[in-house]
Amino acid sequence: MLEIHVMDLEKDPDEMYKLAKKIMSQAYAPYSGYKVGAVIKDEHGNLHQGVNVENAAYTGSHGEYGAISAMLASMPQGKCITAVTIVTKDGGTPCGNCLQHIWQFCNGIWSVPIYCGDVFGKIKIFQIKELLPFPFDFEF
Ligand SMILES: [Zn+2]
Question: How is the beta sheet containing 81-87 ordered, strand by strand?
Fold first, then answer.
């Protein structure tokens, strides 16, 4: 069973939450209506942003993908994620596919925090090991 912590962000402002909430409105989700703003912090403290993008074929990319892509594009060397924040209307968690993508860049650190915020300022805090306890191995 996951232990879920809820933090009142009005008392504990968080830069990543504010940024993810801001960019969430820029997501392109005309089909599902489920907008996602994702912000990743890298090992140097830089923040990378992404939003989900849908299309008429009902495929698309998730916000977490966009943030990881932005991180890779901005830093050719060093690709370690130290924190992830996503904001959705209901505080949902990243999907399994996104969690595997995130894990690929956590440098084996199980305690990387995943902050899942809603639009009302509440955030659930997980470690990636809680959301993805059995990731695929890196080497096949
Ligand atoms: Zn996803």
Answer: 5-8, 122-127, 113-117, 81-87, 37-42, 47-51
